[in-house]
Every structure is written in C-alpha cells, then in structure tokens.
Amino acid sequence: MMLRALLILILVVPAPLLWADNRWDECLPGKLVFTMIPKKDMDEQLVEYRPLVALLGEGLGIPVEMVRPSSYDSVVDGLVSRAVDVAVLGPAAYIMARERDDGIQAFASLAVRPGHYTPAGSFYRSLLLVRAEREFRRAADLRGARVALTDPASTSGSLIPKTAFADAINRPLEVFFGGRVYAGSHDNAMDALLADRVDAAFVSSSRVDEYLRRGLIDKDTFRVLWNSEPLHYDPFVFRSGLCPALRQRISQLMTQPSERRQAFLESVHATDITPVEHADYRPVENLMK
C-alpha cells in the first residue's frame, strides 16, 4: 500500500566490488532502498542525492533504488513497513518513526557550512520569518495573522512552533494565529511568504541560507521575529532488522573520505557526514512527550 503512494525512481549502479566473505553474501539484500523527506523541489533533491546513491551502490556491490516520497509520513511508513532500508528523516519524523518501531536507528548527519541564519556544524534553528517591509516588528504583532507551516511531521516547521514558540507566547498556535496552512515543504512556505499569500512562515534556517546562496533572496528580504534553540540536523537512519554488517559497511562508506563522498557533500553544500546516535535527538523526543 505504501509503495503505491510513492513514485519510484530506480538508479541501478553497476557494482563490480565483490565481498569474499560468505557472511557478506548472506547479509546483502538484492537491492538497497533509499529515500528522504521532501524539503524542497523533489527533482532537485533527487539529483543532489545521486552521488550518495553511486557511493553506496559501488561500495556495497548491489543496486540502489531511490524512492521519490510524497510526504514526511510516506518516508516514515516506508521505514516501519521495511519497504525502505535507509532514509533521511527530520528529527521529529525520526522520533515518530521510533515510536512505531524502536529498531529504527539514527547513525549519521550532515554538517553544514556557516550561513547568515545557520551556525556551522550539525545544528540549525527554527525561524519565524516575515517580509522585512511589512509592519511586523515582534512576534506579538502577528496575533491574528496568517502563518505557513511546512509538514505536520517537520521539526522546525511544525513541532517547534507548536511547542517552543507556543510556550514563548503562552498561547497555542490555533489561538494566536488567524490562519495556518501546511505548505508541504520549507521552500513552499518561503515561496508563499514571498508571494504574500501568508504573513509569516516557520522554516528551517538552513533552507533560508540556501535561498540566500542561490540569490532568491538577499539579507534584507526577511525579518526574523523568533528563533529556536539549536536543533541537531536531520539524521540518516536504518530500518529495523537491517543486517548489522550491512549497517557497519554503510556507515563506513558515508563517514570515511572518498571521491564519491566528497561529490555528495559538494552536491548538498555540506562539509562532512558525522556519526550520531539516538541520544542526540532526545531533546526533540522530550518535546513530543
């Protein structure tokens, strides 16, 4: 049922590498299925991850199938049903997946370059943005305004606004704002703000820096009325039941320097892939209790 909800893009990577140990043969699946949460235009996102697909395909010696997701929930469903082997989730989506299957495990995360809105390293923030030319000067000015969120399973675009921001204003979002809309992605939320379809938007600081890097905005386009504490960046996760030896090999391929790995880092404008564990996302887990 889950796969019918998804469009599938199959990238078969020739992989001449053979593992001599029979244990590898017993461990290897016929293919590895990979996907990621939709954060921007999916065609762009799939292209950005092709170097990673090539890295894993060549390093494992099996085809890698990259699944085009329809939503955050579709990625969680794929992991829980074991139709997906490895995925990129947001912190909140990861905790949601763990609540359904505690064998799902975070193992790595990107480290990013410093930006105007995002510190260097493996952390980002949830930002509440308005157009700089609008009359809003502080968060309280947005009472009764229209706000864009991203996806119900998004950390910076939904969970943090509903918890940390709601605590800061001492009111639930549905009481404070006059209208709320889920845009589907951080980029869609910013586009809605730029087009004046909403008065404000909650988005990831890393996505705002990407818009700035691409020249879609400048440093004076938005005003930040609120920002969260730093949040650990999106985890790469294994599904439950994936062979331990395969997990170890994937982790090695993604964390050890190589030309393919460097090509992926350049593609996603990151500086490193660093190991993580479940404890790194416990602050988000505590917010969701």
UniProtKB/TrEMBL annotation:
Q: Which UniProt keywords apply?
A: Signal
Q: Which GO terms describe its biological process?
A: transmembrane transport
Pull one GO CC term from this UniProt entry: ATP-binding cassette (ABC) transporter complex
InterPro entries hit by this protein = PhnD
Keyword Signal found: yes
Its lineage opens with: Bacteria, Pseudomonadati, Pseudomonadota, Gammaproteobacteria, Pseudomonadales
Checking Pfam families in the record gives:
Phosphonate-bd (PF12974)
- Superkingdom, according to UniProt? Bacteria
Any coiled-coil regions, as ranges: none
Protein's name according to its UniProt entry: Phosphonate transport system substrate-binding protein
Q: Which organism is it from?
A: Marinobacter oulmenensis
Which family would the database say this protein is a member of?
Belongs to the phosphate/phosphite/phosphonate binding protein family.
